[in-house]
Amino acid sequence: MAVDNDNVTSGAGSDFGGHLPVWRLVVPAAIGMAVVVWLFHNEFSIQVWQQIHFTSRVIICIALAWLFMGGRDFGLMWRFRTLSDGQLSWKQAAKVNFMCEFTSCITPSAVGGSSLGMIFMHHEGINLGRATTLMLTTLFLDELFFVIACPVIVAVVPYEELFGFSRHSGFMIGLKWTFWVVYALLVVWTLILFCGIILWPQGVRKALVKLFGIRFLRRWQPAVVELGRNMEDASRDLRKRSAMWWAETFVATSLTWTSRYLVVNALFLGFVPGVDQLVVFGRQFVVWVVLMVSPTPGGAGVSEWLFTEYYGDMLSSAGIALIIALFWRIITFYVYLVVGVFLAPSMLSSKRYKSRKTDNNNKLKK
């Protein structure tokens, strides 16, 4: 495997190793809470709170939202288990999953948690080269899901309900353009990954190296060269996989993202049961695609604001939208931030890493 174990790990360790910078935890939480406070100050009133009654139906639907988030975690653990051919236990897969979500919470959405997934898998005993292959595979499966799901969503959800219900709004125009630009980039990136890790790895590597040989792109050429080598290694592994293996990993991926979207459906079912659940689901797809380019850690602040703006027309007031958005972020964001704080020290301690690294090196020598 053409990966420098020392370089990869030391780079990650400097930021996420034994001493996790406190600001990485404080910044996303502070941004999110600041926007929530600002929205509450502008949109919330005592009359809104009086409209909310935590009846048995509401409580059951909140529990259902947590259940759907559990389905999302199960899907990712199932995928890690399948990709690693059972080398990761369910417990190890759960730890890798939670750490990936944790890093998603404390890094910009454009970076995401999967960028350090190979480090977390390596800490659980997976050879770093193989872990890199698995990371590229998860990345490809996620992008493939979005590429396939978009035409389906647009076909079954009325386009006017996604983008046309406020056509004179600057917000809606910006949202629509952002969504389609991001989706176009996803299509291009998915094609590159498909060609690079399955169809034509050598050709893609040579093309990327040549492209990034241009003067103003040359600073990124070393990283692109490494990516090309990793694609070739991934290709050798993935070409041997059966159609059943691909089907299982894609089903697990679909379960992951579908369950994540259904969290909001459950909350709407509890607080505003009369809305069109198909539209709620379709708009969640739009929200997550747009959040891929959020500059804030874990989409903090942007998520809450986008949710209240985008779903506002389906609710009686912006205050109720804010209440639902708050529950949504607690379930899908803050809980992983809290779990990660407790899990990170044991997962990323330098002592444990050195032990893992020594064991893997000994296995390779044997």
Please give a structural write-up:
This protein is mainly α and 366 residues long. The chain is 78% helix and 0% strand. It has 16 helices and no strands. Helix 5 (90-106) packs across helix 15 (318-347) and helix 9 crosses helix 13. The radius of gyration is 21 Å and the shape is globular. Residues 1-18 and 350-366 have low confidence and may be disordered.
Query: How does the overall form come out from the CA principal axes?
Result: globular
Content-based structural category? mainly alpha
Oligomer: single chain
Number of helices: 16
Mean pLDDT, to the nearest integer, reads 80
Termini separation comes to: 17 Å
Instruction: Quote the beta fraction.
Output: under 5%
Question: Could you give a short description of this structure?
Answer:
78% of the residues lie in helices and 0% in strands. It contains 16 helices and no strands.
Annotate the secondary structure layout.
Layout: H1 5-16, H2 22-43, H3 46-51, H4 56-83, H5 90-106, H6 117-123, H7 128-156, H8 159-164, H9 170-199, H10 201-211, H11 221-238, H12 243-271, H13 277-291, H14 302-310, H15 318-347, H16 350-365
Helix pairs in contact: 2-14, 2-15, 4-5, 4-12, 4-15, 5-15, 6-7, 7-9, 7-11, 7-12, 7-13, 9-10, 9-11, 9-13, 10-11, 12-13, 12-15, 14-15
